[in-house]
Specification:
Layout (H helix, E strand, L loop, with lengths): L1 H15 L22 H13 L2 H13 L4 H25 L6 H9 L4 H35 L16 H16 L4 H33 L17 H19 L15 H32 L10 H5 L1 H10 L1 H26 L1 H8 L18 H14 L4 H30 L14 H16 L4 H25 L9
Helix pairs in contact: 2-8, 2-10, 2-13, 3-9, 3-10, 4-9, 4-10, 4-16, 4-17, 5-6, 5-16, 6-7, 6-13, 6-15, 6-16, 6-18, 7-13, 7-15, 8-10, 8-12, 8-13, 9-17, 12-13, 16-17, 16-18
Length: 497
């Protein structure tokens, strides 16, 4: 009995000093992090995360998966899923505006001293793999466009070992550079973020102009693949798997609208700022993607550019080829350099946000304690930052397609579906909980988002490898949690559980 009381006292002491101890703009305990991020910076960080290198690399991949008849529909379906899921993040982010984002959400939804402790630990464990995968995908994008600018980079630096390209080494170097750039206080990081964000906007504009000019030169119609009738008569056995694979890629490109939730303890007026940042960034980026698709897909769909290059780096850098085709070789190189800038900005934003998650869990006593330290001078989670940067550097030696697919499947199963179901459960179990932002049309957004993600999983071709990897991560994380929980007498081994 006395052990139970000591356990409850220790747990309460931990929670009283953690993110999540209070809610709203004024009810938070001191976490050691300064609230310096306003709405403009929050939107910029989200949009950098969302745009990055993804759409520039994956436009031809979506076209290859879905075909020109309905490639744009994959982007529309991806946008619908993103908006519905964004409303889930907006409500949870306003209700629990704490460092760690999903960690805080899952902990509070499922009970901080009950199953929520296991589920939130499991989330941080999978994030230790999925976050570095996401960061590595951006670094591989950086390396891809470097190879476009300097083709010898795509060669094999070690002739006897063809598993490693020069692009893998360049991606790893980019990851280490971003880690070094983020090893400083948040004020200087915010200034750098605005400089990087300006380059992202210029890049999107350059892609749209290049696509329109190339389409005019080839006579491609700007509405190619958009008509609703393009879906009629398509064999269902072919349509659903193709659309699922293309939508998987589109969802990857939209992701990032939630990045500000991971920085919840550093946001000014989070109950207002977080939902607005999510919805504004989603609306602006969705409009940009629609404009890019109308501009670019007709030219790519003509097949002329897709067939013009045999080398994989050039196929992936096809957007830069549009600029070269329309305006000459120098224009192609300029656009490739701008996309490099955008990719680098995305990695910057990703690593900044994700580095707060293991720190929040470790500070809560629910992850490896070594990661729960702030830098003694600049007050940022330096150990968590370095740990994720090192793991992401290792993942840079995978292929881009492997990284994207594994990332999406793991994230859907071990994060997004848990949050969507969790919000429904929280609304039913705790209707009295103050909610500064309540999503419209409830419960449709979480139901539609969940159905969209399940569609991707159910109809994607050959899903067993990624599903097996997700199951292995879930099983290993659960085993580690149970071992720790037994030694520390926490749920489900607490004497009063």
């Amino acid at each position: 009995m006395s052990h139970s009381n000591n356990h409850n006292a220790n747990t309460s002491a931990r929670r009283s000093s953690q993110p999540g101890a209070g809610h709203g703009d004024s009810g938070h305990q001191d976490t050691g992090l300064a609230r310096r991020i306003g709405l403009p910076s929050a939107v910029a960080l989200n949009m950098m995360d969302m745009i990055g290198v993804g759409p520039f690399l994956t436009l031809p991949l979506v076209l290859a998966a879905a075909g020109s008849r309905f490639a744009v529909w994959a982007w529309v379906l991806g946008a619908l899923i993103a908006v519905c899921d964004g409303l889930v993040w907006a409500e949870l982010g306003a209700t629990f505006p704490d460092a760690g984002g999903s960690y805080a959400f899952l902990r509070e939804i499922y009970g901080a001293d009950r199953a929520g402790r296991w589920i939130s630990f499991l989330y941080v464990w999978q994030l230790s793999f999925s976050a570095p995968l996401s960061i590595a995908s951006g670094c591989l994008g950086v390396a891809t466009f470097l190879a476009y600018l300097w083709p010898p980079l795509a060669a094999y630096p070690f002739p006897a070992w063809h598993a490693i390209h020069g692009t893998n080494l360049a991606a790893a170097a980019a990851c280490l550079l971003v880690t070094a750039m983020l090893y400083r206080n948040l004020t200087s990081i915010t200034r750098m973020a605005w400089i990087l964000f300006a380059g992202v906007l210029v890049t999107v504009a350059g892609v749209i102009v290049s696509g329109v000019a190339s389409g005019v030169a080839t006579g491609a119609h700007p509405a190619t693949g958009w008509q609703l009738g393009s879906l009629v008569g398509w064999p269902s056995a072919t349509l659903l798997p193709a659309l699922a694979q293309a939508t998987l890629i589109a969802c990857y490109d939209y992701w990032g609208y939630y990045n500000i939730c991971f920085l919840g303890s550093e946001v000014r007026h989070p109950a207002r700022t977080i939902p607005r940042a999510i919805l504004i960034s989603l609306g602006v980026v969705a409009a940009m993607y629609v404009a890019m698709n109308f501009a670019v897909l007709p030219a790519l769909g003509s097949g002329r550019l897709l067939a013009s290059d045999a080398a994989a780096p050039l196929r992936l850098a096809m957007v830069a080829e549009l600029a070269r085709s329309a305006f000459g070789r120098a224009a192609g190189r300029v656009l490739a350099a701008l996309i490099l800038w955008s990719a680098f900005a995305s990695v910057f934003s990703l690593l900044l946000g994700y580095s707060r998650v293991p720190w929040a869990a470790a500070r809560d006593g629910n992850y490896f304690r070594a990661l729960g330290k702030l830098h003694p001078r600049h007050g940022f989670p330096h150990r968590s930052l370095v740990a994720l940067g090192v793991v992401a550097t290792a993942f840079c030696f995978f292929s881009l397609s492997q990284v994207i697919t594994l990332l999406v499947v793991i994230r859907i199963l071990l994060q997004f579906l848990l949050q969507q179901g969790g919000l429904l459960w929280l609304r039913w179990r705790r209707p009295e909980l103050p909610r500064p932002f309540r999503m419209p049309l409830y419960p449709l957004p979480p139901l539609v988002a969940g159905a969209g993600f399940l569609f991707i999983l159910a109809y994607r071709p050959h899903p067993l490898v990624e599903l097996g990897a997700a199951a292995a991560i879930a099983a290993s994380g659960s085993a580690i949690y149970l071992i720790r929980a037994r030694s520390q007498r926490e749920w489900p081994f607490a004497l009063d559980a």
